[in-house]
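Input (structure):
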């Protein structure tokens, strides 16, 4: 057992550690940005969001979490997401803002340059879904042809507007690969059509009137009213193109909003939904 002097020394060392390391919290929490005055402060039921994180762009996960917490959707679909980054974002959301989310990951490749990790085990890269309500039956599907990079979708089941719904999160092939995206949307639309109620979120890398989106639109409706042509939609990227969508099968849109963010070249896109 420690004597009095030993206990005093141990206490002094512990106190020094608190001063040097800061209070117990997610790593980097002290750098979390405060939420703006208009932040909702609690999870908004039936709000769904899609956001391409931009990778590699070198943005901090605390800042990403603050952006999500400002609007606090019930369901968040992330693209270009590293599994380790998403885990940190979830920890920040709960530790800094009191927003508790379930999470499912849908990596379609492992990429050390984007996601770090050991040389023989690079980090997972792809899609992720966070939800304030439990997630079940996760399925990750890689498209037969990803184009210049492996691509796919993550599907999970949760509850939105009081009813069970299948949520799809996808990232289609890069620009100027229209034929590849057309094949990918056929795979996606066939999966969506098997469900009476579905929410399809993601970065489609295609403008609203692109032919490859027609098959998705044939089984869903856009959450942005009148968004049937490129000129009728709010841009969702820094280069003033609309690539990010919320497509609905069953639920109905009550509100659609696009919010620019300094932490990605894609804007936050969210919709508030009703049961339909």
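Output (sequence):
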């Amino acid at each position: 057992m420690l004597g009095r002097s030993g206990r005093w020394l141990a206490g002094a060392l512990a106190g020094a550690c608190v001063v040097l390391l800061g209070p117990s919290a997610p790593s980097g929490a002290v750098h979390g940005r405060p939420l703006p005055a208009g932040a909702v402060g609690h999870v908004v039921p039936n709000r769904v969001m899609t956001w391409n994180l931009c990778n590699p762009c070198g943005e901090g996960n605390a800042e990403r979490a603050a952006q999500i917490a400002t609007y606090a959707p019930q369901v968040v679909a992330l693209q270009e997401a590293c599994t380790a980054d998403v885990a940190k974002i979830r920890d920040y959301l709960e530790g800094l803002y009191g927003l508790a989310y379930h999470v499912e990951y849908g990596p379609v490749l492992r990429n050390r340059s984007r996601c770090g990790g050991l040389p023989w085990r690079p980090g997972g890269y792809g899609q992720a879904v966070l939800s304030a309500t439990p997630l079940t039956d996760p399925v990750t599907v890689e498209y037969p042809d990803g184009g210049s990079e492996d691509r796919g979708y993550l599907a999970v089941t949760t509850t939105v507007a009081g009813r069970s719904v299948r949520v799809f999160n996808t990232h289609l092939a890069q620009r100027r690969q229209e034929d590849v995206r057309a094949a990918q949307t056929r795979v996606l639309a066939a999966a969506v059509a098997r469900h009476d109620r579905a929410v399809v979120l993601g970065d489609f890398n295609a403008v609203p009137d692109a032919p490859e989106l027609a098959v998705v639109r044939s089984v869903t409706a856009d959450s942005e009213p009148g968004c049937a042509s490129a000129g009728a939609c709010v841009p969702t990227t820094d280069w003033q193109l609309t690539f990010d969508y919320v497509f609905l099968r069953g639920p109905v849109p009550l509100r659609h909003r696009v919010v620019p963010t300094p932490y990605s070249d894609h804007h936050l896109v969210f919709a508030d939904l009703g049961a339909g």
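Notes: Helices lie at 4-21, 61-71, 83-97, 112-115, 178-192, 214-217. The chain has a mean pLDDT of 88.
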